[in-house]
Each structure stands twice: as structure tokens, then as C-alpha cells.
Amino acid sequence: MKIATFGISHETNTFSSIPATYEEFENYGIERRNGIFEKFEDSNYTIAGYIEASKDLNFDLVPLLFAQTGPIGTITSTAYKKLSNEIFSMVDKEGPWDGILISNHGAAVAEGFNDMDGEFCKSIRSIVGDIPIGITLDMHANVSQEIIDQTNICVVWKTNPHLDAKVRGYKCAELVYKTVIGEITPKQSISCPPLLVNIVKQFTGQSPMKELVDQSNNIAKENKVLDTSIAEGYPYSDVEKMGMSWITITDNDKKLADTLSKKMSLFGWSKRKDLNESVWPIEDALNHALKNYKGPKLNDDKNTIAKNGTALDDIEKSNHSKFGPIVLMDVGDNIGGGSSADSTHILDQAMKLKINNILQTLYDPESVNKCLTQNIGDSINLKVGGKSDYLHGNPIEVTAEICNITDGKYSDDGATHAGFKFFNDGTSVVLKTNDGNTILLTSNRGGNTSINQMYYNKIKPESFKIIIAKGVVSPRPAYQPIASEILLVNSPGVTTSDLNFFEYKNIRKNMYPFDINSIYT
User: Fold this and answer.
1) What is the DSSP code string of 361-381?
2) What is the pLDDT of residues 57-73, one digit of tens each?
3) Is 323 within 8 Å of 469 (Cβ atoms)?
4) Which of 131, 340, 469, 485 could pair with 388 as two cysteines, CB 3.0-4.6 Å apart?
5) Reported pTM
6) CA-to-CA distance for 345 and 349, rounded, in angstroms?
7) Nearest to residue 233, comparing CAs of 243, 219, 222?
8) How far apart are CA 39 and CA 32, in angstroms?
9) pLDDT at position 299, please?
10) How far apart are CA 186 and CA 67, in angstroms?
């Protein structure tokens, strides 16, 4: 049995001013052939699940091409054509295939294709004909009817932070395998109410998402049901398919799949107000942190998190210890959502309030290069952050000691958002400012999804009063085990939780919460 695997994975923030060019994909990593296995086999990413299933079920998994970038703006026409045409040629020339396993994100937008993932699946279907096609998507996918129509199996990750990518990839591969051998006849259905869940309410370890995931998992155990999924959607894509969706796959019972998807979506609709609650203003969050900080975490017991989809409960239980830093999630600079990684809004306000003992990262290759002309231990005057665009604050003047310089390349064998193992922040510099704060400057945009980002740079995050983490949910596996509290902060930026900041032109007109009188039955 010969099954091909490939993908173009991109989460497109259509409000971002940074286009996803072919060069951006190259810089992040375009893997071909066995390079795909070398990069992902020992990770917890979707493709690792495909690889493990191929070994357990004894089928030949043939890697072709996998391309991804961090979340930025719309994929250029040139980039999409170049990447997709290379994949289409490989699929066409190297067939026939018994099955296909695609690893896309699910929220991709390309010039000319608002539903890039649906268009991609349609093209693959036209090449391979009537064979089983499976696709595994990120939980932030905006899943279209086209994706469901052009595949036999669509599986979505069920945890946010994304700790079950490998588990869900395995599930997709297993169902495709069973379809190929004739053990099952999958029928799938999707329900897409006019509903989004605000980014600050997407943690699946807490209400209201926890109840929705629990319902989905319970329905997945029912007779004839092969799998169920919830996609939270990606609210920073101004496209018609943007929003939440529920998917059911049954064994040869389309009517049952329709009924159960609708049932789950109606339950989600009943939670629509809870799914769109507001969070902390910047000054309130800082004042709360000042008032409630009890002191540093004094030991190195980080309550190691399991490496699978059950880890969310472990994360939640590990939070709210008496001691440890208070982590402020910089929602407006959510790098995992396509932001700039150099927002200074929270740090600027903290400095005005004369708060010290703060730790945060800033993407600032210009300042890094200036530091490289000096030596470790030298003092330097810099304007850091706030250089990508006008949305994320102004550069902040600091006088600081250069404490460390590294290549920014580190790995993490523990549980990380999306299951990635290898990280590259580019040349990185640790600054200790004269007013008592620590800033890690990076040359590449990167989120705070691995605690080893700090340890590699000889920073002990447990010792700080406040950590400003650039993200919403993705930093939780890294920081919740050491935090005394985590606050979501409604900061400005291209990923702000205040969605009225954006001018949507292409979404459905009756989308809740923009239309609070919207009806779904």
C-alpha cells in the first residue's frame, strides 16, 4: 500500500502587512522527500502521527513536499503557484497512489483563492481520482464545505494549546488506511454556524471550550461514529468561511453525520456569549500583578506536562501555585496569530508605572546587530521594539547591559504548542536594563512556546515578577507550570481581542458577535 504525504501549511492573517512570499516559506523551511521525515519524525507534529501509523499499520508512506511559514499575511500568487505546482507534479508523476495524507493548517488565504486549502484539495482530487484522501488541520482552521467535499477524512486537532497534533494525525492516517482496505466507508458532514470564538476564549482546558470538546469526544464514542472535530476558526482572516465549524465522520451513514454535526454546532451556538467575553486592560493587569505577586518560584519542579492530548488537565492543575511569576499574555502581539513580535505597549505602560523585574522578548534584528558591535558586559543605549509597523507601539529607549549572546537555536523534547521540537530565534541578545527589566532580543520572529527559549539564553524565568508572553494560548505549556497566575491582556495590535478594531469586508453578514441579533437554527 502506497500513500503520499505533503502539505502547504499557513495561517493567514489577512490584516497583516507582511505577505507570505515564496522566500518566506524558504526561510521558514521547505522540506522535500526524506527531509520531511528527518524534521518531524521525532516531534509531536501531525506528520509524526502519519509516520507512526505507517509503521504500526505497515503501509508505505511516501513524503513529497511540506512547506510552512509562521502566521503572516496573504500568500502571494507566485508562492502558491510555485509550491502547489511542484506538489501537483510529484503527485501526478509518482502515482498511482492507494491514498493521500495532507498536512495543511486550514486557514490559508492566497491571492486569487480565499479558500486556498479547499482549492488545494480540489486540485489533488482532480489528479488522483476516487481514492481515499485524508487531511489533518490545525484547530484554528476555517474549514470550508469544499474541504469536506474533496476529502474522505477531515480530522482537526482537539486541543488548544495544540498538544495532540501527533495523536490526531495518527487518527487521520488510521481512518484512511481502513478506508483503503475496505474496512470502513466514511461519510462526513460539516456544520458552520455564523459564529466565531474570540481568541481569548479558545483555551480548551477551561469553560466554555472545555464543554464543547467534551461533548465532541462523547459523541465520537457513539455507534457508527468514526470521528468528530471542532474547529475554533481563525478570526483574523477576512474571508467568508471564517468561523467555527463542527465535523462528524460516520461509517456509511451520511444522515447521522449531518444530525450530529448540527447537534454539536447548536450546542456551540448556545455558548456564543461565553465564547466572546472581554479580558484585562493593560493598566489593570499590571496593577493586579503588582498587588498579587507573592515572590519567585523557589524550586525547579515545573510539573512536567504529558506529551499527549490529555495534557490540558495537567496544565490547568499546575497553575495558580502560591509563588512564581505572573504571566501577562500579550494578546495584541500573538505571534502564533500573525503579529509582529515587537509590540511595546505593555512594557511601555509598565515603565511608566515604574514596575521592574519584568521579562519579555522583542523581535528586533536592528538592535541585535548594534549589540554585536559590543562585548558581553558592555553597556549600550538602544531603541528597542516597535519597528515593524504603526500598530504595535513605539520603540522604547533603554540603557542596558549586554548579558549574553546566542545563536537562538534550541530544542524542546517536552510538550509544546503544535508539537514542534526545533526552534530558531536567530541571533539573540539578553539585555538587563538599568531600571531592572530583562529583554531578550531576537533576529527572527518567534513565539514564547518553549520554556527552553529562556533556559538556552541563561535566563531563569521562575525568578521574575512579571513575564510578558507574546501569545494567547500557545505559551501555556511553557509558562503555566511555573506561573502563579496567567492574565490575558487586551493589548492593541494586529491580533487584538477587540475585533471591532478590524474592518471586515468579506465575512458572513450575520456573524456573531458582530451581529448580536443573528439567528441559527
Assistant:
1) EEE-HHHHHHHTTS-TT-EEE
2) 999 999 999 999 988 99
3) no
4) 340
5) 0.85
6) 6
7) 243
8) 10
9) 59
10) 28
